[in-house]
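A favour, since you know our structure tokens better than I do. Could you add the entry underneath, on a fresh line?
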Amino acid sequence: MRKVLLIITIILLTINGYAQTQLWSMASDGGAFLHYGTIFKLNLDGSGFFVVHSCDFPTSVIPEASLIYLPNGKIYGMTNEGGGNPDVGTIFSIDPATNIYSELYIFNDSLGNGYAPFGSLLYSNNGKLYGLTIEGGAGYGVIFSFDISTNTYNTLIELDSNKGIYPDGSLIQASNDSLYGMTEEGGTNGYGVIFSYDIVSNSYTVLHNFDSVSGLDPLGDLLQATDGKLYGMTWEGGLNYGVLFSYDISTNIFTVLHNFDSTTGNVPSGNLIQALNGKLYGLTTDGGIYDKGTLFSFDLSNNIYSKLIDFNGINGWWPEGSLFQASNGLLYGMTVVGGIYDDGVIFNYNPLDSVYTKLRDLDTLDGFNPNKSYFIEVRNATSIPQTTSIPPAISLYPNPNNGTFTLSYHLNQLGIRNYQLEITDITGRTLYSYSIDKMSIVNFQLSIPLSSGIYFWQLLNDGAIIGNGKLMIIGN
């Protein structure tokens, strides 16, 4: 029955989400100003590629990692440099309805705030953004918060050699509300740490010190899978070429699950994702038949690692970022180099039939060198009108919930028919899409359990957003 529900869900998402959404991402080089990077979007079939913003000096230089799409309808991200000084970095927003780019904050280490943000922003359940820098503060980076309602920046933790230094990835918020991350160096052994940060108490805790056995120099982000454990990868260590590991936050047990090797792929640089089929997917920058990187899966039910694709140069080379599963069920990613122009490629991979498709060869004007970048999915605001939510008429309860909830709306106030409820994750990926007709109170039980965490819901009528909010899933 669960397999049937999964197939039905994927079909619904393909029908309802495919033509209405676009993929957005960033490249760290190229663009109209040649070397400062771009922010771009394209359709899920690879058509409609469009450079939304070409970064330029001094306002925005070298956008890193990924964008995030928030319930207020805006997209947020960071640049590693720019802002009047090429070594500080910025926080910015983009309105996808108008493609207007706005600089919100310029990092200023003269105030001890840190600079050179290297990962992505995290949208927390308290409504604030959180992130990491690799420089500044005490000299080794900071944890910071940014309030989008007031554009207020706060330095929370200054990293040092004991806490861990040079965080190369991003923060995640786990089901217990704590933030988790990794540093590339520092800690007891000097090879990086896993840490937690409690928002309420402003307390920082080192959970694991990496070593030559458990892996060296962890890169990318942690992932909390549906089993509640954290999963991640290291660049080196283990038997030589890096490891894939788990960390159980309930027992504090660290486990090496796979040692990367030159045949099946090594030197992973990006993040793991968990696809709708429950498996983990990721990329290695090196190894494989052509020694140009691989795409792989890892089955949590039996701890089996499978090499799925060998990059060969023409189909891409050096996939340094991460994969993203879109609403059509396909996995999307990019490579830093390779392709016709040797500027990287955009590709997708179908986990159902194992078909790899190169969608676009990047070039200088597109932007190239998508450094640790991955896609998010954004509703096509140019073709779908958005209207202001009417809070008194629409409510979702209880919230938080365990996947069972009630959506209530009043037809006599809204006077409309043919609703659609969509649930997305924090990256903008549409997980569920339900059609609702002529009922004012609807009870839902999600057919595929979601792991504990933050999600977003929106109620649509003929493409117009008439209500939206955060959905908190707990107890899964």
